Structure formats: structure tokens, C-alpha cells
């Protein structure tokens, strides 16, 4: 690409309330030297015009097709719900645009594979937002493991709470679709997936696993109405497995919110030491993360500071998205591969497919889903 700012068209912006508004908009504005938001496309022209007017965006497109046809758009950012990803992303790729699509890339592995192949065929850059992988805490954890803080890694264990998928749902309009497994936006594909994507960057590939997926709550209380709505997405995820290094792996994610304790705990045990990462929930892509460690004869954890990476946004929601955008801009200009790509997304989808297969078949399965660890920049 030339040296001009990357010109961005956003698909799916609802001012003040949806993910594009609270995450992508402030992230892009924090990187205004790199990006220029030129337009928005929503489900209708009227909706796009309202969003553009409210957010100070120059242009409202009638639909995605008009956005894709515009020579003023370099990068199409797809922030609509997961079931809509496939058609919107496909249209952008077929129009020759670079694409940044929210994770999950598709409802299924098959959808993700088609989109990744289309991006390769069209010769465009295609990125996805597994932003846990670029958080300062995760990158520092990887640095500590790589430089021998714990020695040889013997085992790792993770517990996480999903906030949603518990006993209640507070916002039916935005959250009810997350309760339906067929929509592909679940406890497995969102917080669990973001976390295991980061875990593989730090500790390497998952080589084999057994799993249990269960829906213990079949009805969820809608606090707005006082009525119940059905849920068939899993609210319990347990896996036991082995990493390519030989280290043991265990993970347990459950729906709902913790009661005053850390809703995310990740332990890395080694021959020489022990590292722990904690956070308020299992959404490692969203929440502040803290590091703790102990080595040798030390019997208690000590806090470990995390280096600042220069992103000024204190809120982790737009801050972590901005970290992906910063890498994305560099990749477009320099031809590097520092941001998560569609090809990376396919392998993560493949790993989740392995989890579902192990749970469905009730046996230990081997996993062929090689991870490309993101470089430190």
C-alpha cells in the first residue's frame, strides 16, 4: 500500500451501543495517524446515515455492495453478528478489498476455510480480531516462559467464567442470539477460543485432547421481562489434553459470573517456577490481566509488572482492538504478518472443531491445527 492513511469502511455501526461503537471506533480514532474512517454501511441506508451523522463519519453507503465498489475504501471492517459474517466478508473479498473481520470468522470451520481461501485467491490481506494474543500481559507471559522463568513447562491449567451463558440474560436484543448454538457465537467460540488462541502462542500447539460440552441450564431468566428464554449453547466446557511439548493441559470454562473472586486463573507450572495470570472474567480479550510468579525456594507469588506498549487507551476493550489495528497497518504497508490472519483463524476453528468432535465421540482425539505464534513487535 502507499503511505496514505488506511481508508476504512465499517459494516455494522450502531452509535453508543454495539461492538463497533465501543471498540473499533475509539481504537481507530486513537490511531488517526494510521487510519481514516471514510464510511459506514448498515442494514439500511437510513441506519447508515444515522450512524454516520452521529459519529461524524463522512459517508453513509446504501449497502455493503456500494461500499465495496468505492475506490475510497481500502479496508472493510466487518463487525456484524457472526451468522452474517460469511456473506459480508465474501462480498468484500470478491470486490478486492482488504478485510478485518471480528472473531469468530464464521459459524463453522467450513465457512472459515472458504473465506480464507477466497482471500488467498484474490491476493488481499485478511485479518481477524483474536486480540487476546496481542495484549501486553499475554506477550509478557510468553516472554517469561521463553526466557526460562519456569524452566521446562510441566503442565498448565485454566479456569474461566463467561459472564453470559449463566442463569440470567440482561439485554435480550444484543445477547439472546449468543444462547443459540447454531449462531456460532458461544462460550466455546468467544471467551474460550480467545483464551486458547493466546495459550497456544505462549505454550505451543495442542496435540491431543478429550472434552465435555454440556448445557446445564436449558432456560435462562431474561431480567428485562421476568420471563425465561431457551438456551442450547454449552454453559460448561471441560478439556484435558496434551501440548506438543508433552506438557499437560486442563481447561474449564463455565457460564455466568463469579461471586467476588477472580473469574479467570491461568497457571503455568514448570521445573523451576510457577506463573499465574488472573482477571475478573474469562474474556481475556476484554478484561485487565495481572501476572504473578514465584521461583526456586519462594513459597508465595509476587506480582510481575507488565511493560507498557504505547497504546494510550486505558479501556481494554478498544485498547486491545487498537493493538491489532496497529499491527494490521504495519502489515499492509510492509508486507509483514504480525496481526492475526484468516489463515490463523482457520486453524483456531479447526481446534474448536476438535473439541466438539472429542465431546461428541466421547474419546480422546488427536488435533492437527498448527498455530502460528504472533511475533513480538
Q: Can you characterise this structure?
A:
By secondary structure, this protein is of the alpha/beta class. The chain has two domains: 6-128, NAD(P)-binding Rossmann-like Domain (Rossmann fold); 132-310 and 343-366, 2-Layer Sandwich (Dihydrodipicolinate Reductase, domain 2), CATH 3.30.360.10. The chain contains ten helices and 18 strands. It has helices spanning 19-30, 45-55, 64-69, 82-94, 109-122, 136-146, 172-175, 188-203, 316-334, 342-361; strands spanning 6-11, 35-41, 59-61, 75-78, 98-101, 126-128, 153-161, 168-169, 206-214, 219-222, 228-230, 236-243, 248-254, 264-270, 273-279, 290-295, 302-304, 365-366. The strands form three sheets. It has a nine-stranded mixed β-sheet. The protein has a six-stranded parallel β-sheet with strand order 3-2-1-4-5-6, sandwiched between helices. Strands 8-10-11 form a three-stranded mixed β-sheet, with no helix packed on it. α1 (19-30) packs across α9 and α6 (136-146) runs parallel beside α8 (188-203). The chain is globular and about 60 Å long. Residues 136-279 form the Gal80p-like C-terminal domain. It holds the Pfam family Gal80p_C-like. GO terms for molecular function: nucleotide binding.
Amino acid at each position: 500500500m502507499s503511505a496514505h492513511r488506511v481508508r476504512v469502511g465499517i459494516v455494522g455501526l450502531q452509535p453508543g451501543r454495539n461492538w463497533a461503537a465501543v471498540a473499533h471506533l475509539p481504537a481507530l480514532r486513537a490511531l488517526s495517524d494510521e487510519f481514516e474512517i471514510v464510511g459506514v454501511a448498515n442494514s439500511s441506508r437510513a441506519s447508515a446515515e444515522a450512524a454516520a451523522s452521529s459519529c461524524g463519519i463522512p459517508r453513509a453507503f446504501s449497502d455493503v455492495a456500494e461500499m465495496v465498489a468505492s475506490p475510497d475504501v481500502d479496508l472493510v471492517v466487518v463487525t456484524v453478528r457472526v451468522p452474517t459474517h460469511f456473506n459480508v466478508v465474501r462480498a468484500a473479498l470478491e470486490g478486492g478489498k482488504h478485510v478485518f473481520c471480528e472473531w469468530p470468522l464464521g459459524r463453522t470451520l467450513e465457512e472459515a476455510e472458504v473465506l480464507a481461501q477466497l482471500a488467498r485467491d484474490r491476493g488481499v490481506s485478511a485479518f481477524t480480531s483474536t486480540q487476546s494474543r496481542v495484549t501486553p500481559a499475554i506477550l509478557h507471559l510468553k516472554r517469561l516462559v521463553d526466557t526460562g522463568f519456569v524452566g521446562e513447562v510441566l503442565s498448565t491449567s485454566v479456569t474461566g467464567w463467561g459472564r453470559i451463558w449463566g442463569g440470567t440474560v440482561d439485554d435480550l436484543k444484543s445477547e439472546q442470539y449468543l444462547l443459540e448454538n447454531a449462531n456460532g457465537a458461544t462460550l466455546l467460540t468467544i471467551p474460550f477460543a480467545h483464551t486458547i488462541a493466546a495459550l497456544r502462542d505462549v505454550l505451543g500447539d495442542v496435540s491431543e485432547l478429550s472434552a465435555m460440552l454440556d448445557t446445564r441450564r436449558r432456560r435462562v431468566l431474561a431480567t428485562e421481562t421476568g420471563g425465561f428464554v431457551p438456551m442450547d449453547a454449552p454453559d460448561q466446557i471441560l478439556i484435558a489434553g496434551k501440548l506438543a511439548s508433552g506438557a499437560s493441559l486442563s481447561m474449564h470454562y463455565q457460564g455466568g459470573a463469579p461471586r467476588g473472586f477472580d473469574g479467570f486463573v491461568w497457571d503455568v507450572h514448570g521445573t523451576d517456577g510457577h506463573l499465574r495470570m488472573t482477571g475478573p472474567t474469562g474474556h481475556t480479550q476484554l478484561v485487565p490481566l495481572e501476572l504473578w510468579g514465584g521461583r526456586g525456594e519462594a513459597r508465595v507469588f509476587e506480582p510481575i509488572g507488565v511493560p507498557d506498549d504505547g497504546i494510550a487507551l486505558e479501556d481494554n476493550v478498544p485498547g486491545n482492538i487498537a493493538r491489532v489495528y496497529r499491527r494490521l497497518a504495519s502489515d499492509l504497508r510492509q508486507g509483514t504478518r504480525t496481526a492475526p490472519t484468516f489463515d490463523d483463524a482457520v486453524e483456531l476453528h479447526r481446534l474448536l472443531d476438535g473439541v466438539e468432535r472429542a465431546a461428541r465421540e466421547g474419546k480422546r482425539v488427536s488435533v492437527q491445527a498448527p498455530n502460528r505464534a504472533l511475533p513480538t513487535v
